[in-house]
Amino acid sequence: VRARVMEVTKSPEVSYADIGGLEEQMQEVRETVEMPLEHPDMFVDVGIEPPSGVLLYGPPGTGKTMLAKAVANETDATFIKMAGSELVHKFIGEGAKLVRDLFEVAREHEPAVIFIDEIDAIAAKRTESKTSGDAEVQRTMMQLLSEMDGFEDRGEIRIIAATNRFDMLDRAILRPGRFDRLIEVPKPDAEGRELIFQIHTRNMNVADDLDFAALAEDTENASGADIKAICTEAGMFAIRDDRTTVQRSDFEEAWEKIQAEEEDDEVSKT
Ligand code: ATP
């Protein structure tokens, strides 16, 4: 059961250099997650407790998971990921049991970074969600908070949660000693998009005169995940055209295609 719902990776292969933009967010993650893992003694010497949990919030595909993986890579920690939706179960006690398992696996693999994606699935305001009124979901959340309270020296295990729905969260989980460090991860601005294009074309054969700043201007509102998709799709356009060099028009057509697909998705959801 564990293997199915938990992703466990020793020192995942994502580094800070793979993340475009998000300088401030990287800095904050380093201070709140990396420092306590690498220098727990400093917190003891200074006489403060490191933040308990870090919450990353922002739109889908902006690099939240990457940030958590990069910090685990940098600290040579085991990355343990679980989606909040996996913790929502029909059977009484099952969600809480999974939470206990999650922390047990983390203790077995210290140093470890626990990453809980879609935390809103178990921590939505009662009024906002069908499931949150559910006593079982409440119990699962309580178990998570009690595990977080549980460790005295949290140095070797750090907890990062992520959500696309900050507005939906039950404020109780943001209290001190819980997820008390909030980091917003927004969509990239033009400069960020330019950096992300450079990262995702690193291994691509692009035209010598490709203007990355212009590409960034052309793709307003694209997330990092969109840019990754644009690069792959642009390569497909070049192949269809029997070229081995990818040019600006390929990227532009790719973005149009991806936007059209995203619109179709929106329509089919409503
Ligand atoms: P979700 O909320 O949907 O889980 P997320 O914020 O966790 O999304 P990631 O899983 O980190 O997003 O990003 C998805 C993919 O998009 C990454 O694997 C990466 O290829 C690309 N990506 C997203 N943001 C960035 C970024 N800032 N720099 C480089 N690549 C990015």
Automatic annotation (TrEMBL):
Molecular function (GO) terms for this protein are:
ATP binding; ATP hydrolysis activity
- Keywords recorded for this protein, A-Z: ATP-binding, Chaperone, Coiled coil, Cytoplasm, Nucleotide-binding, Proteasome
Does the keyword Metal-binding feature in the UniProt annotation?
A: no
AAA+ ATPase domain residues are: 50-189
Q: Which GO terms describe its cellular component?
A: cytoplasm; proteasome-activating nucleotidase complex
- Positions binding ATP in this chain are 61-66, 200
User: Would the keyword Nucleotide-binding be found if you checked this record's keyword annotation?
Assistant: yes
Where does the protein end up? Answer: Cytoplasm
* Predominant place of localization: cytoplasm
Outline what the protein does: ATPase which is responsible for recognizing, binding, unfolding and translocation of substrate proteins into the archaeal 20S proteasome core particle. Is essential for opening the gate of the 20S proteasome via an interaction with its C-terminus, thereby allowing substrate entry and access to the site of proteolysis. Thus, the C-termini of the proteasomal ATPase function like a 'key in a lock' to induce gate opening and therefore regulate proteolysis.
| Entry text on domains | Consists of three main regions, an N-terminal coiled-coil domain that may assist in substrate recognition, an interdomain involved in PAN hexamerization, and a C-terminal ATPase domain of the AAA type.
Q: Which family does it belong to?
A: Belongs to the AAA ATPase family.
Name under which the protein is recorded: Proteasome-activating nucleotidase
Gene symbol of the encoding locus? pan
